[in-house]
Amino acid sequence: MLIKLVSWNVNGLRALAAKSDWRWFAETDAQIVALQETKAHPDQLTPEVAEPAGWQAHWDSSHVRKGYSGVAVFSKIAPLAARAELPEPAYQGEGRLLHLEFADFHFFNGYFPNGGAEELDENGKPTGRFRRVPYKMGFFEAFLSYAEECRQSKPIVVCGDFNIAHKAIDLARPRQNVKNTGFLPEERAFLDRFTAMGYVDTFRQVHGDKTGCYSWWSYKTRARAKNIGWRIDYFFVSEELAPAIRDAWIEDQVYGSDHCPVGLALDL
Fold first, then answer.
1. Residue pLDDT, tens place only, 40-90
2. Burial 145-162 (b: 16+ CB within 10 A, else e)
3. Domain 2-267 belongs to what architecture?
4. What is the pTM of this model?
5. What positions carry a catalytic annotation?
6. Helix 185-196 with 133-151: angle, nearest 10 deg
7. Per residue in 183-231, pLDDT tens?
């Protein structure tokens, strides 16, 4: 059975759903759609968006601040179980993770934290330290621990906005960003360790070192028109599922957000 999964950081589902770009959802042939940065609770959306006909809807919305973070999964395949949040209380409340268990794999949809603003010293000068990087790295460690626990029973599929470009090939201007969060050595080192533990970057598995492939572009500099982007949205699978990978792609012609959808096809 071929299963198609897509992931999209929508940067505000209420805003996107009001645009013609949201036709994308009606036209997708995926069986599982994962959204990040929904910035909404289901009751803030129309029923057609919050619980579309023919789909099972699962939500994890922020409880610490309205209009912030949030993830959702729409599935045409009924999961065996669905859970929100990481088990560790320190990383709960922001609406960052959904875990659906299917017959053949554990599925995670994550909106992983970004590094936040750069801290300033007493003279107002940048310090090279980013306010949320410690929380971000702690979140990743808690996620990895949970994923490894789940992996003992069946393979893992994890998608979402990781807020990390793994290697120089994954962003247009690596040299200019080595001191910026999203491309810091400690952030990239986590993905080094993650992949060394047997989690496969499905896009690279299919496309090798193909260049110019990004999933996020800054609104501020009209970067998308110039393709000055970052690949920070991923599908990883644990290596047990690597033989099942049939395709992986980036839908860079889809607009409506500063991110675009990414996809994965598995033959199970």
1. 999 999 999 999 999 999 999 999 988 899 999 999 999 999 999 999 999
2. ebbeebbeeebbbbbbbb
3. 4-Layer Sandwich (3.60)
4. 0.97
5. 161
6. 0
7. 999 999 999 999 999 999 999 999 999 999 999 999 988 999 999 999 9
Residue 197 corresponds to which tokens in the numbers above?
């533990």
Return the domain boundaries, the chain.
Answer: 2-267
Q: Minimal CA–CA distance to 212: which of 203, 221, 220? A: 203
3-state secondary structure of 92: coil
Of 153, 114, 104, 107, which is closest to residue 134 (Cα–Cα)?
114
Show the CA angle centred on residue 127, arms to residues 126 and 133, nearest 5°: 110
Asked whether 36 and 71 are in contact (CB, 8 A), the reply is yes
